[in-house]
């Protein structure tokens, strides 16, 4: 698998997500992880000249899921990143949005 260096803006969001998580700020961590993923989608949309590249970052994740032919693992990661929290603001057990966001961003930036 090809190794990719993520753009600084994405790394910054991922770092902020991990820091928020370490300080017990789960909501802030989710927001930053999703922002990082949205930034990756924005870069992808710019690369393919998609007209929605200026939309909000979470909306870009939702639009990404509508694209046919996206590899199944990348689609699964996008679905995880758009998973809604429970009424107690929890995500399903074992779902690490920061880790998933990094993996998703790497995969998206490698798409043609």
Short structural description:
This protein is an all-alpha fold and 112 residues long. The chain has helices at residues 8-22, 26-47, 57-64, 72-81, 97-110.
Structural write-up:
- The chain has 112 residues and is mostly helical.
- The protein has one domain (8-110).
- 62% of the residues lie in helices and 0% in strands.
- The chain has five helices and no strands.
- Helix 4 packs across helix 5.
- It is globular, with a radius of gyration of 13 Å.
- The model has no long low-confidence stretch (mean pLDDT 87).
Provide keyphrases for this structure.
112 residues, mainly alpha
Q: Which spans have pLDDT < 50 for at least 5 consecutive residues?
A: none
Q: SSE string, helix = H, strand = E? A: HHHHH
Query: How many structural domains?
Result: 1
Termini separation comes to 15 Å
Q: What is the arithmetic mean of pLDDT?
A: 87
Report the principal-axis shape. globular
The gyration radius over C-alpha positions equals 13 Å
What proportion of the residues form beta strands (DSSP E)? under 5%
Number of helices: 5
Could you describe the largest sheet, including whether it forms a barrel? none
Quaternary structure of the protein: single chain
The percent range for helix content is 55-70%
């Amino acid at each position: 698998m090809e190794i990719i260096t993520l753009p600084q803006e994405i790394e910054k969001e991922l770092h902020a997500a991990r820091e928020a998580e370490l300080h017990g700020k789960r909501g802030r961590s989710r927001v930053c992880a999703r922002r990082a993923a949205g930034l990756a989608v924005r870069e992808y949309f710019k690369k393919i000249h998609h007209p929605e590249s200026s939309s909000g970052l979470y909306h870009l994740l939702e639009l990404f899921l509508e694209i046919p032919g996206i590899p199944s693992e990348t689609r699964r990661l996008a679905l995880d990143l758009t998973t809604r929290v429970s009424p107690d603001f929890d995500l399903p057990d074992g779902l690490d949005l920061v880790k998933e966001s990094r993996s998703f961003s790497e995969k998206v930036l490698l798409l043609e």
